[in-house]
Amino acid sequence: MELTDLWFVLIAVLWTGYLVLEGFDFGVGMLLPFVGRTDNDRRVAINTIGPVWDGNEVWLLVAGGATFAAFPEWYASLFSGFYLALLIILVALIVRGVAFEYRGKIDDPGWRRMWDRAIVFGSTVPALLWGVALANIVAGVPLDADHEFTGNLFTLLNPYALLGGLATLLVFALHGAVFLALKTEGDVRDRANRLASRIGLAAVVVGAVFLIWTQLAYGAPWTWIFVVLAAAGLVAALVANAGGREGWAFIGTAVAILAVSVTLFGSLYPDVLPSTTDPANSLTVVNAASTPYTLMIMTWVAVVFTPIVLIYQSWTFWVFRRRIRPTDIPAAAGLPLR
Predict the structure, then answer these.
(1) What per-residue confidence (pLDDT) applies to 333?
(2) pTM (predicted TM-score)
């Protein structure tokens, strides 16, 4: 395998890890008003992701950095063409992070309600826009001969991309609901189970339409199996959730997100950003890549540090594996988290 192909696969893996891990963070944030009728319930929900949300976001930083280093032309065209959409995502992520940290600083219901709204905003916007962005990357955007984006924000808001955004929004909401059911006890768990059943049906329908559209318009023959796997994962998650087996339900949604990612990146290869203006203007793993020497250095760095990161994050999830009960939340609102 050429180093350019290897790094395309590695970047796909990084984005997949980010979507699987940050996906349930987004879902928890979006569902906060629906699972938390009281402040204590909302604190239970937030504390399910409190120890891991910032670690999950590291995957985004690494994916962006790897894209910049391995495929600078891809990074330049992507971040200039998608500038406004990515800026909105960045602002939403900042708002969400600040909300997590500041929510419990003042013992005042109005203060906490303000930051709760910020958490919902900071979770919903990226969940929608990441789907829009990924769909546009697969479908292609107008690029000139210099690989410069010649469209605008409304170019990105096409029907296929908006359907992709709705699909990621619903799948992440389902992912977050089953995670909440897995990690909590009491009323929050019961509400999360009910929400998962309701959201899941919409996620299956919208996700199936989006993946079939992707496959028929852009897919490779071998990616059909992952379309089927994604559908099977979502259906299995619904069945497991209905039976009270939240662990299996969470595995089902994680498998579905993984399969969707493979479908999208598999449909994209060997392009990294197709041009709808002229196929000759498309960015590929060859013309967008860094020098072989740069890719070789990056490969050795990845070999050394990737296992360390994976071991550390796995350890974090193991340490905080226990369910959170309402009685685990301290009475004082000013105590962490929140």
Answers:
(1) 44
(2) 0.93
